[in-house]
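ugh finaly. both done.
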Amino acid sequence: MPNKFKYLFIPSAILFALFVLSAGNAQAQSDTFSDPNIEFTFAIPDDRWRVVGRDPYVNLIFTTPREGELEIRKTNVPASKPLADIIREEEQKLQFLPGYVAGKEENFSGNLRGAIFNFEFIRSGRNMAGRFYFLRSGDVVYILRFTGYTTSLRSIRNQTDAIARTFQIKK
């Protein structure tokens, strides 16, 4: 009797292995944001991200703006100015959001080095979160402003990190 089941197990194992390999390939696929009029590029890790604006800032949304939104801003500052000072200036604007609570800062490294600032706030009675990446390239700091429902932004954190990690200046 055990010999009958031995032959059933082998095809099942092969099918499972093929499924795992194909799922891994689907996860690894991504698009690249590139525009001839914009000086940077980055990977878009999921086809649910849509570009909704390019002027004056690049804007993307993840399914809906409340699920996840990205706005990319550029600011010119001397290379000698610490990122902590730039984050404090940004935080001063955020303090007026209803229910604002500052989170922790983290160092960040990808194609560009920088820092991350996390925070939470309330919009229309819903818990929202922000995760801002401050990426430095000489005298320019790019601010990748991700916002969305707190639970949604947590669930796509690997994607926000991937976008920031692959963000680079065109050569």
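ok and the 2nd:
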Amino acid sequence: MTSGARVLLVTGKGGVGKTTVAAATALRCAELGLRTLVVSTDAAHSLGDAFAIELADDVTEITPTLGARQLDARVVLERMWGDAREYLAGLLGGTGLDRVRAEELSVLPGLEEVVALGELADHVDDPDLDVVVVDCAPSAETIRLLAAPEVLAWWLRRLRPQGTELLSVAGPLAEQFLGVRLPDAELLAKGEVVLERLDRVRAVLQDPDRTSARLVVVPERLVVAEARRTHTYLSLFGHHVDAVVANRILPDDLDAPGLAAWRRVQARELGEIEEGFAPVPILRLGLADDEPIGVEALARLGEELYDDDPTGRLHDGQTLSVVEVDGNRVLRLALPGVDGGGELDLGRRGDDLYLGVGPYRRVVTLPDTLRTRPVVGAGFDDGVLSVRFGPREEGDVG
């Protein structure tokens, strides 16, 4: 085990079995004697349904080595941010808004994601835990969750006054001449605590030795497309994806009228999964006879999913990155095990980039920063493929 709790982030499109996989993963860890916590940041509150037990914002014991928590961001928000909400509501009330609307608007966009991360910071630093499994919200919300520390920290560091001395001078003047009450020193001090927690959890979540993300998909075209997009953005934000779980695969011995077309669709999409996420390993789960509910059913699922310790790093490849070089954007992608001796193939279809080096193939869904830029060149050096994108063409927006 690494220093501090191992963190496994489980995410995917809503309805693909993400929560079930997270619960089964946590149970598998606990069965190996690891002190495990599974915590859900998904507002759907389905983690308790998976265990067939009612969960609350506090940790509930599932087994002697497994606890579960359904994080209620509203409860934590009031506990952690009550003073800040009061301040913001008062500030907005001064603009003429009535109290009810001012209070509603005082919950800043993304604040619940920040609260969830703050709570995770405490769990991953808990010396009594070996593993923290996070049942994340669906893909888009997960991207916002994991991007929140950098975005919020950037804003807080630029908006905060430089020290209480400035605040003591500016505060009375702002209230007298502008009718605006600046935050007091105590509130700013709480903001510093939030920044420290965000920095701490960001360091943990971006450390591939401690944290891995696992994407859950089903072999359907729209699901696979969203998962590839999620993989791109997780990589851009420095998060390591070490496995993809392909769920609800038709078993070979299942024979019934009408399954032939479904098998063809699944075979095609499984091929897309293998190609689109290579060289990340694909873990396969068959279509269950019944929905896996409760500890026993989830334990069987965990055994099917993992041959060995689920906390191991299932893939060591580096993440994708985008940098700016001489006015061009360069997408860099590590291709472990590729020597670069083969011919380089490069193609593009819409928002997807198709890459090939010798026998290896990879499909990358482009992030927004590259979608409107033309490809102007590519090269392979020391195990890293670099694709150069030129400036946006005339008339492009974004």
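summary for the 2nd one i guess: The mean pLDDT is 77.
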